[in-house]
Write a structure and sequence with these properties.
By secondary structure, the protein is of the alpha+beta class. The protein is about 35% helix and about 25% strand. The protein contains 14 helices and 15 strands. Helix 10 packs across helix 12. The longest helix is centred in the middle third of the chain and has 23 residues, at about 255-275. The protein is globular and about 60 Å long.
Length: about 425
């Protein structure tokens, strides 16, 4: 992951500021992919939670109803450090039972019915209301500057970077994924169990990682906290195999391996996007263009003829999500992207291994467009703030937009993916 991803609005100053001084400063509301029909065996409920992640909220609801969490459907995950409204579904539970729930940090706002369970991805987008505090500029200057930045982002698009949360506390998930793609157990285990980092690790984890690097596997196992089940299981396998790290790799949860592979794809996409900056709104000969109305892609053979559609945000250039299904670019577009991919030296064997871990490949637009945007300056008991309102398509990071306004990438770490 590049240390410093370029901003589209680099010529304008940042207003600074921090988000989530308190949960109410970050409000997010899901925009459903479809409206419930009003009839069916599945009860849909809109919940509002505060100070809880989605999984913990669903756990509490499941315990209160005497059901399993897997029986509750949901479209997406929402951060704990926010006020979040989202829809859930439960089959064969009377709406009255949901409406009467009394839970700390979770309340049911409304219920209806539908014919099917709500599943991950049944989400059109999200509506945000965010307050920035501790601003670096005077209120009047903050508002003017933010308006200029937001105007550019609405017209040209926000660079569609994957946020740093994709890369973990150690910022090395992509390196773990790279090792997995190469089936390189030694490198994977050294990244997974070693590489002590005083800024990211607790005292116990720091000691465990240091002991691993020194080859003291038994002592390292003693120091790994119990909640690091995958790390402990892998280390036990290495010890049982008399130091063979391949034994440890076999024990790592396949879902976790898939997350690492996804981070590797994300890193390559970010690097390609950084190389295309600031021209995220310009089509090149040989591009694969993304159609925003249906998600289909097509080869750009006449960029001048297609550019007006791009200017209207009907289509956008794309970057790679590396895998067997990734269509390679040609021409001038390929001259930018292909050297980045070719430098990885991945062949059919590696692509097949990535596919087995869930990374089939594809393409992703280089930009996204905020809609229904609004700005306001205000003051409350915590002092002055800048309030931003906007809607984003599902899968787009609000904090990527915010960092263009603050000019501070650390803002992006505040939007967690549970």
């Amino acid at each position: 992951m590049p240390d410093s991803l370029p901003f589209l609005t680099a010529d304008l100053p940042g207003v600074g500021g921090v988000i989530k001084t308190r949960p109410e400063d970050f409000f997010v509301e899901e925009l459903p992919l479809y409206e419930p029909s009003g009839s069916g065996t599945h009860v849909y409920a809109q919940i509002e939670k505060q100070g809880l992640g989605t999984r913990e909220a669903l756990d509490r609801i499941a315990r209160a109803l005497g059901i399993l969490r897997r029986d509750i459907g949901s479209a997406g995950l929402k951060d704990a450090h926010a006020v979040a409204r989202q829809w859930i579904s439960i089959e064969h539970v009377p709406p009255e039972r949901l409406e009467q729930l009394s839970l700390a940090e979770v309340r049911v706002l409304q219920t209806t019915r539908h014919t099917n369970k709500l599943k991950p991805g049944h989400l059109r987008g999200n509506r945000f209301v965010v307050r920035l505090r501790k601003l670096a500029l005077p209120p009047e200057e903050t508002l003017v500057t933010a308006e200029k930045v937001l105007s550019i982002l609405t017209r040209l698009g926000v660079p569609n970077y994957f946020g740093p949360q994709r890369f973990g506390n150690h910022r090395n998930n992509h390196l773990l994924g790279r090792a997995l793609a190469r089936n390189d157990a030694d490198t994977f285990m050294d990244e997974f169990l070693g590489r002590p980092n005083a800024q990211a690790d607790s005292a116990a984890v720091l000691q465990a990682r240091s002991l691993y690097e020194e080859g003291h596997y038994e002592e390292a196992l003693h120091h790994w906290p119990g909640q690091f089940a995958d790390h402990r299981r892998a280390l036990r396998a290495i010890i049982a195999g008399k130091g063979k790290k391949k034994r440890g790799l076999f024990t790592v949860d396949k879902h976790l391996q898939g997350l690492f592979i996804s981070a590797y794809q994300s890193d390559l996409f970010n690097r390609v996007l950084a190389a295309r900056m600031p021209d995220v709104d310009r089509l090149l000969l040989g591009d694969m263009a993304y159609k925003h109305d249906n998600g289909a892609c097509f080869r750009v053979e006449q960029p001048e003829a297609e550019q007006p559609r791009c200017d209207r945000f009907e289509i956008s250039p794309t970057g790679p999500l590396l895998g067997q299904r990734t269509t390679r670019l040609v021409g001038p577009a390929g001259e930018i992207e292909n050297p980045i991919l070719d430098a990885e030296g991945l062949g059919e064997s590696e692509a097949g291994h990535m596919k087995r871990l869930g990374a089939r490949g594809g393409r992703r637009p280089l930009r996204f467009q905020p809609r229904n945007t609004g700005l306001a300056a205000g003051q409350d008991d915590l002092g002055p703030y800048l309030e931003l309102r906007f809607e984003l398509d599902a899968g787009c990071y609000a904090t990527t937009l915010l960092s263009e306004i603050t000019k501070d990438r650390s803002t992006e770490t505040a939007e967690s993916q549970e």
